[in-house]
Write a structure and sequence with these properties.
By secondary structure, the protein is an alpha/beta fold. Among the domains are: about 5-50, no CATH class; about 140-270, Beta Complex (Malate synthase G - maily-beta sub-domain); about 600-734, Up-down Bundle (Malate Synthase G, Chain: A, Domain 4). Helices cover about 40% and strands about 20% of the residues. It contains 24 helices and 26 strands. It has an 8-stranded parallel beta barrel, surrounded by 6 helices. Strands 4-11-10-9-8-15-16 form a 7-stranded antiparallel β-sheet. A hairpin with a 2-residue loop joins β5 and β6. The protein is globular and about 80 Å long. The two termini are about 15 Å apart. InterPro entries: Malate_synth_C_sf, Malate_synth_sf, Malate_synthase_TIM, Malate_synthG, MS_C, MS_N, MS_N_TIM-barrel_dom, MSG_insertion. One of its GO terms (cellular component) is cytosol. It comes from Adineta ricciae (Rotifer).
């Protein structure tokens, strides 16, 4: 806790001096906002809304106590859905407004990337400037590189990846890419791009000369929209398909880049990451005011267009900056400017977290989400006011996009909207400038999604599903119902399938098509790209307009799915289907309790798998402040881990411990054995501190153990309270 001498008193609040100085000296200049007026207004919002935030959390706790008690006094009756549902309505867990008449959202001034384009989406920890820039700059990517460097192209038959260029592998990449071009921008008369020896432009149309001397053109001429270079010998040709751009880059006639390619296509760039969520929540480890200022400073750099990151690659020092826009000549001869970067959302923390960056008059921490709303919106004024370098900008429609996670039901969503309105008034912004993305990741939001959307129908731009946090909340909400199924089996349960379908159905019924994103969750295995290409096409097929991927490379490959599926046409099909009218509530309330006995071996395997996963993530979080990373699992397969993955693993073990499938001694013994495994997996990391040297004194090991042993007592099963306390403990010791 900071001493009073390190704080600035404004009315009834005490602001950490480092935060106050950052806002006054770095953020406020150029915003046209008077410093005294900002801090006075911030004090009013914090004072007025902090009690409301606390009251909402108390409602959560009260509902959970009642649900726990019901399961204890009605053992096994959770299968009587009618009785269980009536109970949830009676206590107010299910909203009485859920089934009111239909409505449509009315959100306006939404950028095209959100409203009427479908593509992959990245989530990146804002605390890491290098990673953030890499994600923001990933709007355009090389299809050649993505294919050559991943298992989408098999290494069989002499096509191995090596330190030098493997021509045989390269030929497979070229063939794969030509097939993609034939499917996405087909030529007339069934001609193939593989047989083209020259592209040129005549009378505003693209012409292609074939190997046999014939000349063909695009089957849909309007797909050609621009070029770079000369009409007769362009070195870049731009196309549009399903709302996404494709760019063919051609070498000069004397360029020996690919002598076996008759047209000498050097690369094919595709638009992939149209939107990126820069994250202040699940993927970061921000536990004190210094961490928060670091996050906010990076957001300021993004909003001003000045963010940079230097790093060493081999012997070279590289400075990464935001990419400029891309300039072409349109088919009519005018300049055509396309964005060079993703459109940015910022994800705030949920209502649960509190921060000592500002204290109340009673020296109590304030809700961190209120601070996020105030400071990140103030910073975003630099984008709205045009205080950016060159052509670099974020929104072109004058909106600020905020993802709000971990909200429980319509009352909490309404509170967020009220908070946003107060911030808009303080900063003299038009109503509904602040747009909201509602993450459908808590059970009480899922079963009341229609009512939640109603509360923000004028500012909604995003809903999404996500297996991990949603499953974590499913486990915690039903903690007392019985021992629940294994983690892998959760993907086959009735509630989860209903959840994924219900989200899209309600989103479309509420008019999100061509107004807001409907999103799907993360592909968590970064090195299994062939499997992702095989499976993740299911997301656009469901009518979802975006889905999360773990890297820019994965985004390029997932973008291929949006060329195969016209998502908006698929949404029209769904809107006319009977499936969209189905009520999924009964399925959503079907609790995934184990119905068959597990063997000792099955139980131990689940215990070891989850223990290793928890330890592998937590040790980096506590010791190195890494909130999201690729962590090897028990079989040494890299998995993307963040607090959502930690939540489900720790909650499942807490549930099994609560119902006697495992014992405390068994947990502790397994955790110690798995600590040796994790230590081995991190042996090459110079910054890593082994856990097995001293289990009793190792903060990371004790944090991981606490997440399991006290998991059933954590509010909503969240991991943040333990992680933050233990991270602060580690920082104090070092």
């Amino acid at each position: 806790m900071l001493a009073n001498s390190e704080r600035v008193l404004i009315g009834n609040i005490k602001i950490a001096r480092s935060l106050f100085k950052f806002v006054d000296e770095e953020v406020l200049p150029g915003t046209n906002i008077d410093p005294d007026a900002f801090w006075k207004g911030a004090e009013s919002i914090i004072t007025d809304l902090s009690p409301e935030n606390q009251k909402l959390l108390q409602t959560r706790d009260s509902l959970q106590v009642q649900i726990d008690q019901w399961h204890r006094t009605h053992p096994g009756q959770h299968t009587d859905i009618g009785t269980y549902k009536k109970f949830l309505f009676d206590i107010g867990y299910l909203s009485a407004r859920q089934h009111e008449e239909q409505f449509q959202i009315t959100t306006t001034n939404v950028d095209d990337e959100i409203a009427c384009q479908a593509a992959p989406q990245l989530v990146v920890p804002l605390m890491n400037a290098r990673f953030t820039l890499n994600a923001v700059n990933a709007r355009w990517g090389s299809l050649y590189d993505a294919l050559y460097g991943t298992d989408v192209i098999s290494e069989d038959d002499g096509c191995e990846k090596s330190n030098t260029y493997n021509k045989k592998r390269g030929d497979k990449v070229i063939a794969y890419t030509r097939k993609f071009l034939d499917q996405s921008i087909p030529l007339t008369n069934h001609a193939s791009h593989a047989n083209v020896v020259k592209y040129h432009i005549a009378n505003g149309e693209l012409k292609a000369t074939l190997q046999d001397g014939g000349v063909t053109q695009l089957l849909c001429p309007d797909q050609f929209i621009g070029y770079q270079g000369d009409l007769n010998e362009p070195h870049s040709i731009l196309f549009l398909h399903h709302g996404l751009h494709i760019e063919i880059v051609i070498g000069l006639t004397n360029d020996t880049n690919n002598p076996n390619d008759p047209v000498n296509i050097k690369d094919v760039f595709i638009e992939s990451v149209l939107t990126t969520i820069v994250d202040c929540e699940d993927s970061v480890a921000a536990v004190d005011v210094d961490d928060k200022v670091e996050l906010y400073r990076n957001w300021l750099g993004l909003m001003k267009g000045t963010l940079e990151a230097e790093f060493r690659k081999g012997k070279e020092i590289i400075c990464r900056k935001l990419k400029s826009d891309r300039i072409y000549t349109s088919k009519t001869g005018a300049e055509l400017c396309l964005p060079g970067r993703s459109l940015l959302f910022i994800r705030h923390v949920g209502h649960l977290l509190y921060t000592d960056a500002i204290l109340s008059e009673n020296n109590e921490e304030i809700p961190e989400g209120i601070l996020d709303a105030l400071v990140t919106t103030l910073i975003a004024l630099h984008d709205l006011n045009g205080n950016r370098t060159g052509r670099i900008r974020n929104t072109r429609k004058g909106s600020i996009y905020i993802v709000k996670p971990k909200q429980h039901g319509p009352e909490e969503v309404a509170f967020t909207s009220h908070l946003f309105a107060r911030v808009e008034d303080l900063l003299k912004l038009p109503r509904f400038t602040l747009k909201i993305g509602v993450m459908d990741e808590e059970r009480r939001t899922t079963v009341n999604l229609h009512a939640c959307i109603r509360e923000v129908k004028d500012r909604l731009v995003f809903i999404n599903t996500g297996f991990l946090d949603r499953t974590g909340d499913e486990i915690h909400t039903s903690m007392e119902a019985g021992a629940l199924v294994r983690k892998a089996q959760m993907r086959e349960t009735k509630w989860l399938n209903a959840y994924e379908t219900n989200n899209v159905a309600i989103g479309l019924r509420c008019g999100l098509s061509e107004r807001a994103q409907i999103g799907k969750g993360m592909w968590a295995i970064p090195d299994k790209m062939a499997l992702m290409v095989e499976q993740k096409i299911s997301h656009p097929k469901t009518g979802a307009t975006c889905a999360w991927v773990p890297s820019p490379t994965a985004a390029i490959l997932h973008a291929l799915h949006y060329h195969q599926v016209n998502v908006f046409a698929r949404q029209i099909e769904l809107l006319s289907s009977l499936e969209l009218e189905k009520d999924y509530l009964d399925d959503l309330l079907t609790i995934p309790v184990l119905t068959t006995s597990l063997t000792k071996e099955e139980i131990q395997h689940e215990l070891e798998n989850n223990s290793q996963s928890i330890l592998g993530y937590v040790v980096r979080w506590i010791d190195q402040g890494i909130g999201c990373s690729k962590v090897p699992d028990i079989d040494d397969i890299g998995m993307m881990e963040d607090r959502a993955t930690l939540r489900i693993s720790s909650q499942l073990m807490a549930n099994w411990l609560r119902h006697g499938l495992i014992t405390k001694d068994q947990v502790e013994e397994t955790m110690k054995r798995m600590a040796y495994v994790v230590d081995r997996q991190n042996a090459d990391d110079a910054a890593y501190q082994p856990m097995a040297k001293n289990f009793d004194q190792n903060v990371a090991f004790q944090a991981a153990l606490e997440l399991i042993l006290d998991g059933d007592k954590q509010p909503n099963g969240y991991t943040e309270l333990i992680l933050h306390r233990r991270r602060r403990q580690f920082k104090a010791q070092h």
